Amino acid sequence: MRRSPAVVAAVLVTLLGTVLTGCSTPGADTSSTTPPWPRPTDLQHRADEAGLENVWGQRLAEHVHTHLTITDGDTPVVVPGDVGHSASERFAAQLHTHDTSGILHVESPTRERFTLGQFFDEWGVSLGPAHVGGLRGELTVWVDGKRSLGNPRSIELTNRRQIDLAVTTIGEVPHRPAAFDWPPQYR
Domain of life here (predicted)? Predict the structure, then answer.
């Protein structure tokens, strides 16, 4: 079956865009959208895309929390609650949120390495070295208060780690958000 040149070109542009943006979340094109980004409703599909599984009710070997802050210039971006989680569906992916605090919960029956890229894949928001979703400009990343270079997708989620992603206009000086004040139950 022959494909028209226009169809072939459209497929190639889509594939190239996915490679260049670092977006590995088919079906969720946030590479051109700006916040707010809602929580996904197709929990099992999103977990599958991120290489995660439903561990609801399983005994945990690992239970850690990382805090994520995203800013667009000086404007905070909300990380939605219940990404990868639904009590009514008895669903909890190994990586999920409960509320809009920015706390990412890693709860797994096995000790594994989980990354920020997996969370963004599960959320359905593209993340790469130069963008967060449709936010473009300069992406500055801090991990535990120190500048981090490279692809933010590879940042490991460890206990009480703080990850700050700041997207600014090119040439604008980024401001690192204040340190997160962990609630007592996480100390």
Answer: Bacteria
- Model's pTM, two decimal places? 0.83
Predicted confidence (pLDDT) at residue 4 exceeds the cutoff of 60: no
How do strand 62-72 and strand 161-168 relate by DSSP bridges? parallel
Q: Which bin fits 57, alpha (ψ -120 to 50), beta or left (φ > 0)?
A: left
Domain membership of residue 39 (yes or no) is: yes
Residues 6+ apart with CB under 8 A from 7: none
**Number of C-alpha atoms within 13 angstroms, CB side, residue 27?**
11
The strands making up 131-132's β-sheet, listed across from edge to edge, are: 127-128, 131-132, 135-136
* Within a domain: 67: yes
Report d(CA 91, CA 46) in Å as an integer: 12
Examine residue 185 and state whether it is found in any structural domain, yes or no.
Answer: no
